Description:
Layout: E1 2-6, H1 10-17, H2 20-27, E2 32-36, E3 50-51, E4 61-62, H3 64-74, E5 81-91, H4 94-100, E6 105-109, H5 118-123, E7 127-130, H6 140-151, E8 184-185, E9 188-189, H7 192-196, H8 199-217, H9 229-240
Parallel strand pairs: 1-2, 1-6, 5-6, 5-7
Antiparallel strand pairs: 3-4, 8-9
The site of 3-[1-(phenylmethyl)indol-6-yl]-1~{H}-pyrazol-5-amine has 18 residues, from β5.
Amino acid sequence: MRIDVVTIFPEIVSQALDFSIMARAQDAGAVSFGVHNPRDFAEDAHRMVDDAPYGGGAGMVMKPEPLTACIEAIARDDNPAIILMTPQGERFDQETARRLTAQDHLVLICGHYEGTDERVRESLVTHEISIGDYVLTGGELPALVVIDAVVRLLPGVRGDSTSAARDSFEDGLLEHPHYTRPPEFRGMRVPDTLVEGDHADVDRWRRRMSLQRTLRRRPDLFARAPLSDDDRDLLAEIVLSGTQKRRR
Ligand code: JDQ
């Protein structure tokens, strides 16, 4: 996959992409990144990328010409997904991330100030994404969130030991708790079922904990989670054993 990012703060994005799994993903050849500054495409003496809004009011708006020139320099003959980061976009979730893995080329437009001239959206943008219902100062962090969530799903990015299929949200439920050594830490013991390690028992324990956590923290997820008959039995047990001590 090729991912190009359009931003007036290229250093922030480049820095973030050169760390950790994103760096490994590039080294492995699963993805290549480009970072582009629309200011480099501004033709006026001051290389302006923003201007006052028509109709008046506070703040500035991203000018259409440098942004358009920048995007057109990236999107040559292939037809990439051109994604505008905006609080008004479709809410980003694991399903959106999974769908984007089918694209060969993503172009993410960050934007700044109060937003972007509407004509850029009308003429070039194919997707609009919001990472959540809060307002940030620009699209750089949202773009990095989308990139991180998509790239970790690409083949060859993580070891075989980590299966995307077992992630939280991939099966529509929250994850069970995790433990490692030591078996007792400050008086808190690892559950016997995990220490003993009978595979069937461990699987059942994990599934029960996933269901229990989802029921208590995110019951809304059950509207879409595919549940087996065994899951329904476990859920019934959990609901009926309401005297249990509440877990965080
Ligand atoms: C930009 C801003 C007031 C936008 C400028 C570009 N989920 C999400 N939250 N915030 C954003 C996305 C986001 C993305 C791009 C952005 C915010 N701003 C600031 C300020 C109204 C609209």
